[in-house]
Records
---
Amino acid sequence: MKSLLIYLKGYRKETVLSPLFKLFEAGLELTVPLVMAALIDRGITAGESGFIVRMCLLLAGLALAGLVSSITAQYFAAKAAAGFGKEVRRALFAKVQSLSFSDLDTVGVSTLETRLTSDSNQAQTGVNLTLRLLLRSPFIVFGAAIMAFTVDARAALVFAAAIPVLAAIIFAVMLISVPLYRAVQGRLDRILGATRQNLAGARVVRAFNLESNEVASFERENDALMRMQNRVGRLSALLNPATYVVINLAIAALIWSGALRVNAGLLTQGGVVALYNYMGQILVELVKLASLIITVTKAVASGNRIRDVLEMSPSMTAPAGSPAPDATAPAVEFFGVGLRYHACADEALSGVTFTARRGETVGVIGGTGAGKSSLVGLIPRFYDASEGVVRVLGADVKDYPLGELRGKIGVVPQNAALFSGTVRENMSWGKEDATDGEIRAALKTAQVLDVVDEKGGLDFVVAQGGKNLSGGQRQRLTIARALVRRPEILILDDSASALDYATDAALRRAIRAMEGAPTVFIVSQRASSVLYADSIVVLDDGKPVGIGTSEELLRTCPIYREIYETQFEREAAHA
């Protein structure tokens, strides 16, 4: 948590003024019992009405000054805490954007969401209460004890005995609570992960009539979280009654010893009232301090979790300089490439070697889990090859700045991801300064211009995730978004699966007819989609088992021949 305090750097004035105003308020509060003692001893006992009026006006003035000081302190604390929360979330989001796909797979999406939301809010609340109370409460506790000694040193020994006991109770509870609250936040990650997975797969759950199973699974996770929260809650709940017991015993001892000293003429009645008020102030502040400690404990646990993410070093680094261009080099080259997603995992790819020349169309085909998406994911460097070299336009992908490398490549992923906004705004993801003419040209190439015009043109508002479009329309819009930037390499990762054969064929013809046609990688399980590719890479269990044209593979590659014959025989039977 300490390392996060750098995000308060822009709010130094607020972090200083808020505690100072609170300390000023506390000083005024410590003065009140002395005024009350004087009011009783000189005003009420002696019957001086003028003195009573002056003391009452003084109390009112102290109250007003304390109110103004408290409001000012609250304002500065809230401003500093809100700014701290903003800076922490900004840093977290920037860190998440810098992490590689491997890092995101390792950490998990749900735990990152929890850190950006729940953990950040907990840390922000902790900063707010710390600025307001962390100095004020101890100041009043120890200040009240010191002021009690100025009233009567003998009776004030009760304070000297009570305060160490209270401190021991508070720190013992805090010591045990911090790791427990950290475990609670970890369990919350699992709840969020289960919820996110269930919402994403809602159609599948309902299609298989497994709602009751999912409810039962969620209840198990939820019950586990509840039990853990109850455990830490019971521990934290001991804080208030334990402090109340100690304080009330101290008050009883104080009144007993004070009464004896009043009878002996060693202490005035106002002095006893002042001592009682100081003990009451200690009680109130310890209750606040107990609440503060619980909140700060949560904030520390959350802050440590945030720190863990902020201190992560991205596993993927890139140079600042660009490699020398080579106009004669092939578009993409793979040399003995292998891929493991994690250090101890099995190979997702192994022994991949092939070359794609500029302007060619390369098909990548194979069964489910063969490694097709893994292979094309190495070209824009979404993942780093664990062995071998991947070259783009003559240079190792690791020699490119990531922005420059990915600026040369248009990627259309398997899942068509559109964002809420107009068609024009969605297309600007491909090229920020794209003109309407460039956008319409890309939409035409992607075979979706007529659909957009029917729906109202480029100002048609797309719902989040493209929920107001069909699957085929979403896929064609994502293809158009990649085409707007006119990439040198275009990767279509099974992105035409929702298109009919005629639209798929028209799309491929339009891309080949583009001026300065890109090198195209078509990932598909359909033989018809890669049939006319200049070369086809056939994968089986992460290994290339055939590379060549469709005619060559039909003669030499049994796996490709099986895929081809199975699909075309089925289509002939349906015809």
Note: The CA atoms of residues 17 and 486 lie 55 Å apart.
---
Amino acid sequence: MRNRRVEFKKGLLCRVAGSLVVLMFIVGIIVYPSIIPVFGSAAESSDAAVSNRASFSTDVIYQIVTDRFLDGDSTNNPEGDIFDRSNLRKYHGGDWAGIIQKLNDGYFTGLGITALWISSPVENITTIDPSNSSASYHGYWARDFFRTNEFFGTMNEFQNMVNTAHEKNIKVVIDFAPNHTSTAEFGTTVFPEDGRLYRDGQLISGFKTDTRDIFNHESWTDFSTYENGIYHSMYGLADLNHINGTVDSYMKEAVEQWLNMGVDGIRADAVKHMPEGWQKNWLSGIYEENPVFVFGEWFTGGTGSDAQMEKFANESGMSLLDFRLANAIRGALGNDSITMVDLHSVIEATGADFEEVNDQVTFIDNHDMSRFMTLSGNNQRDVENAYVLLLTSRGVPAVYYGTEQYATGSSDPENRGDMPSFSTTSNACKVIGSLAPLRKTNPALAYGTTNKRWINNDVYIYEREFAGNVVLTAVNRNQSAGYNIAGLLTNLPAGEYEDVLGGILGGRNISVSAAGAVTVFELGDGESAVWQYTNHSEAAPDIGNVDPMIGKAGNTITITGRGFGAAAGQVYFGTKAAVVQSWSNSKITVTIPNATGGVKDISITTAAGTKSDTYEGFEVLSGPQAAVRFKVNNAATVYGTNVYLVGSVYELGNWDTSLAIGPFFNSTSTIGMYPTWFYDISVPAGTTVEYKFVKIDGSGNVVWESGNNHTVVTLAEGTAAVTVDWQE
């Protein structure tokens, strides 16, 4: 298992801040020209650099529904019935020109935002969906993944937006939805586009005229099983068949086109509804050429464990949006349905369930749930306190556009209203502007452990710590009662500490003794405070993250943390040394060495000979990947017994049945119904693979099929499907 950086040990600015930074920089250039390289090679070598596309641990993301943000160019607005600013289901005119305008006027910089997550940029249908009277303003009804949404802008304008963002030291993440095209089935309704998929203007197929198996043709999903959600359509959206070689190459080449324009990250839509095996093969292709940050959407409505979701997060190679933490924060601070003790329990549980918990993307609201302001009954202090928690907790925080302006809205589309204001005077704006920059300067927030320090039903005080860096956060959700905080211990060094928020939410200075005891203080009604210590004398190398999470030999990976030193040392995958590409005190890039596929521990030895802690369980793939659908007929079982697959390569468990792939599916009419079983798996491309099926019951008892091993020679590129009979 990977190194779990979030352990549990029991026991103002907005525009003002941004203007000050700009002013200090200008003064520095005039008086001390030598500081210019701060934004050059020295800065680029750090973990906080905009060029660090693999890791977002030091970043704060700002999610934008592009159409609802700002209309910067009215000449590209739609005409006809798909455009109506009085109708939340129609286009409103927001575009990339509007985002560029706010980049240039410093709105994002003032907030401390270092990454923008924008709506899918690809061409969408330009007709009204007759089943819901909506236009595709949101970007999720793709038509052509190789062209832009003309109402957002041209390819040149998209490139200009990316370049402008990078000039402001801000990364760009695009939403990408490879699961489906547009709606194509709803009773007898006729859909003008019929879910058609195009490639740079050339028709590939429509849904009802599909003779090439481009789409899956099952009924609407009832969400009853994982299998049902993958191979059935969501609400009638034309569901793409990813094991079709045309679809596979299309999605690989489409995402590569956008990444080659400088995009820094991908938010993958609906990952719960696509085969994990295909997605891992897709990610492997991405990481070969563009080792960027990828996170997916796996919706869950509660705070409890979801074994399939956690398996995906730990094995697929991408991070997820952390709905469990979002639901916990919304419950604890939004509607008081759970206590702060419950919130801590969720943080503790997710820290154990997610092997890369610091890479999960956290949030308090988004385009698919009610605005936090509405959830809280229009309570501004709840919003402000929620942001204190979000921005100092583990994970990569994402701010939903307009929440800093206390935007309201219940369900879709009310939660996707126009940006209400670009004022920088709100307390929510000031909280974000105070805490977002701290993620760049104090690595405790990027990589640290989480320690509960003081708690009751209303108050949560916790500490993040990494490599001697400490951030202590206190939040009181009760706006009718304050609490005397006595007996609080901390790893902050002895001294006096000012509230990082500057008292915006009532926080006070604290005093820490040599023994780590904090003097008694009052945390008043609804108050929050943050105190921090930045360590400038790291003694030993300390690994924070390794990104991407998977890769084959020859790929580039990025190691971030502290204490690596200025001179290059050595990085080991197990006992194999890697080729070092770049080295700084907080970021190293290396080439994955030649090695057999499997789980490897990564360690660092500095130029001075000091060894790091071990980052456990990096996944080295056997080689370039291809998705294969394995199917077996006539595999009869009793209730509680399922079919799995093992084989001769790491991706199939190297014949170890404890690592067998499955359980297989058996309830999709167009692919396989019991006693036929099937599963889509990522395996090494261009390789001879031997395999066998096994039956495993609920007690772990294994029954192998008899006969010789099955053999498949995978394609060097593309997908495949193999079908055999169970050998009695």
Note: Residues 542-621 form a domain with the Immunoglobulin-like fold (CATH 2.60.40.10).
